[in-house]
């Protein structure tokens, strides 16, 4: 029987590219996201290749997460890999100008949502045992500060530390945990972050060579298919044309 991957945020970007990559690799898919039409389109695209189960899900809703997991069809229950990918950034402006609601949305999605899904799937992942994986999508923003990152970067720092801490508790279960931390990648991320400013998104990704969603999907697939005895703790991936910058200094 084929292995099963459970992907949150499969309607766009890394999640959708990962669905396609795992389908090409023969894995069965459980695909979640809020935009049901997109899930249906993806299911129609991939169902000839592999079995695909879709579930409309807002990861912020713990009860809904539990229900989706409880109602998984028999053939989709024994999850081998959880890809905690659903997430977003908002308000790319100084902290002092941000609406509190935007901070809450990022925490609710990137922290609470990720924890909700992890908690609901831990029993089945532990039952799968050796070779099972939790792959959390963190970010370079979780490690490296920059202006306008405020709560977004802090949620991704949580993702990194939660991943490490999970490893400590799961050490004897065979379940691996990895924090994949991408740098700049062209997806709908900046469109969401700017609340629909296509020009801003085009500016950010223009005149350089960002990562593509497929680049990260390839890394996710690679990590999930490592030999059982190997755990990548953290995998930070940047475009070649991106690097760190100098410290900021305020001057008179
Ligand atoms: P996209 O905006 O293209 O995709 C985000 C996905 O998250 C969508 O499928 C969206 O689905 C889903 N999502 C958002 N909120 C929720 C929610 N409340 N419940 C369920 N699903 C949700 O962006 P990316 O593919 O770039 O982002 C994927 C992950 O990668 C995020 O965690 C992001 O922080 C991280 N990341 C992105 C980088 C980049 O430069 N692009 C770099 C580093 C990390 P829907 O709206 O249908 O619910
Ligand atoms: C997304 C990467 O640098 O835009 O997590 O914050 S960055």
From TrEMBL:
Record domain Ketoreductase: where: 3-187
Residues forming coiled coils: none
Oxidoreductase recorded as keyword: yes
Pfam families: adh_short
PROSITE patterns: ADH_SHORT
Key word DNA-binding present: no
Domain of life of the native organism: Bacteria
Keyword terms: Oxidoreductase
InterPro entries: KR_dom, NAD(P)-bd_dom_sf, Sc_DH/Rdtase_CS, SDR_fam
Record PANTHER family: ALCOHOL DEHYDROGENASE
Family: Belongs to the short-chain dehydrogenases/reductases (SDR) family.
Protein name, entry field: SDR family NAD(P)-dependent oxidoreductase
């Amino acid at each position: 029987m084929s292995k099963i991957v459970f992907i949150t945020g499969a309607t766009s970007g890394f999640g959708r590219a990962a669905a396609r990559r795992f389908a090409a690799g023969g894995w069965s898919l459980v695909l979640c996201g809020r935009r049901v039409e997109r899930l249906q389109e993806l299911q129609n695209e991939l169902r000839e290749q592999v079995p695909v189960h879709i579930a409309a899900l807002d990861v912020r809703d713990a009860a809904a997460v539990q229900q989706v997991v409880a109602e998984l069809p028999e053939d989709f229950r024994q999850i081998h890999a959880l890809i905690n990918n659903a997430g977003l950034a908002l308000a790319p402006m100084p902290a002092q100008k941000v609406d509190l609601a935007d901070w809450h949305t990022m925490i609710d999605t990137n922290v609470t949502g990720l924890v909700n899904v992890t908690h609901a799937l831990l029993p089945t992942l532990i039952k799968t045992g050796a070779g099972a994986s939790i792959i959390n999508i963190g970010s370079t923003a979780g490690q490296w500060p920059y202006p306008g990152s405020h709560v977004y970067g802090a949620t991704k720092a949580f993702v990194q530390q939660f991943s490490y801490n999970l490893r400590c508790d799961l050490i004897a279960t065979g379940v691996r945990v990895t924090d994949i931390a991408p740098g700049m990648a062209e997806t709908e991320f900046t469109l969401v972050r700017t609340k629909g400013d296509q020009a801003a998104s085009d500016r950010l990704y223009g005149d350089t060579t960002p990562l593509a969603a497929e680049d990260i999907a390839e890394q996710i697939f690679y990590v999930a298919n490592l030999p059982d005895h190997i755990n990548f703790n953290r995998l930070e991936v940047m475009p070649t044309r991106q690097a760190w910058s100098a410290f900021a200094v305020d001057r008179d």
